[in-house]
Amino acid sequence: MNRRLTAILLTAFVVAIACSYLVFRIVGNRLGAPRHQVTRVVAAARDIKLGSVLSSADLTTIEIAGTLPQGAILKTADAIGRGVLSDLYLGEPILNSRLAAPGSGGGLAATIPDGMRACAVKVDDVVGVAGFATPGMRVDVLISGNPPGTTNTAQGSQVRTLLQNIQVLSAGTDIQRDAEGKPQQVQVVNLLVTPQQAEALSLASNQTKIQLVLRNPLDTKLAETPGTGLARLYGQDNVPIGPPRPAHMVRRRSAPATRVYLIEVFNGSKKTETKFASHEEKQ
């Protein structure tokens, strides 16, 4: 009986030592693990739309453990009064790259990057791609008209691609996307272009008809297009331009000179004149 009791106690003692060792290892690993540093950063207290100017009511702070996002703002004073360049959402950390430079304000002007311009293009319902040219979309700019200095009227008007992969900044007075995706008919579309593109677009607006062609924002490849003329639509793109005709085809018979007779009649001091064509000419 004593042996059995001794064996049981010894077994229990070994099991207790093994369990204690396992618990010690687990707790020791957790205590010895490096602790991530927690930092408080500025975040959005609500959904904030593009073009808004931040106020203290729009901001809050959250804790982030580990590495901070590049450009994270640590003080609310560094974000107040700056314009929002893209939509911000509740609880999202606010980065410097998402805000306009201090003092630039909000609205459309704050969304224009350095070295770029916002060029307004007057459109109608069809030119505006039926209202689907919303802010953030990408479009191509087509121009149609008669090229200057063209002498061949048989070719008709031509259409060419002036600009490709151009970003839409605003449609009408709206610089924000429609959350429901509903189209809105607009009369003016602002495009984000370089100064050189702005000059070409301004000239085209006054001298030609402009049409915007909607494209996939992920498609950034520039297409090489030669342009299309009216004659090509009718299968006459190979019509020769003004070939000289043979001499026997262009020679015309000259018309005979017309003989006219003048008769003067005096009646007192009154004089009248009457002209008659010759009898042969009447034949």
Q: Can you offer a commentary on this structure?
A:
The chain is of the alpha+beta class and 283 residues long. Among the domains are: 74 residues, Antifreeze-like/N-acetylneuraminic acid synthase C-terminal domain (Type Iii Antifreeze Protein Isoform Hplc 12, Alpha-Beta Complex), CATH 3.90.1210; 118 residues, no CATH class. Helix content is 20%, strand content 26%. The chain is built from five helices and ten strands; from the N terminus they run H-E-E-E-E-E-E-H-E-E-H-H-E-E-H. Strands 3, 4, 5, 6, 7 and 8 form a six-stranded antiparallel β-sheet that branches. Strands 1-2 form a two-stranded antiparallel sheet. It has a two-stranded antiparallel ribbon with strand order 9-10. The N and C termini lie far apart (161 Å).
Number of strands: 10
Largest sheet: 6 strands, antiparallel
Envelope shape: elongated
Low-confidence stretches: 239-252
Order of helices and strands: HEEEEEEHEEHHEEH
Nearest-integer average pLDDT: 76
User: What structural category do the secondary elements indicate?
Assistant: alpha+beta
Rg (CA only): 42 Å
Q: How many separate helices?
A: 5
Helix content: 10-25%
Gist?
This protein has helices spanning 2-32, 195-207, 230-233, 247-250, 279-282; strands at residues 38-44, 59-65, 117-122, 138-145, 158-171, 188-193, 209-215, 228-229, 260-267, 270-277. Strands 3, 4, 5, 6, 7 and 8 form a six-stranded antiparallel beta sheet that branches. A two-stranded antiparallel ribbon has the order 1-2. It has a two-stranded antiparallel ribbon with strand order 9-10. It is α+β, with helices and mostly antiparallel strands and 283 residues long.
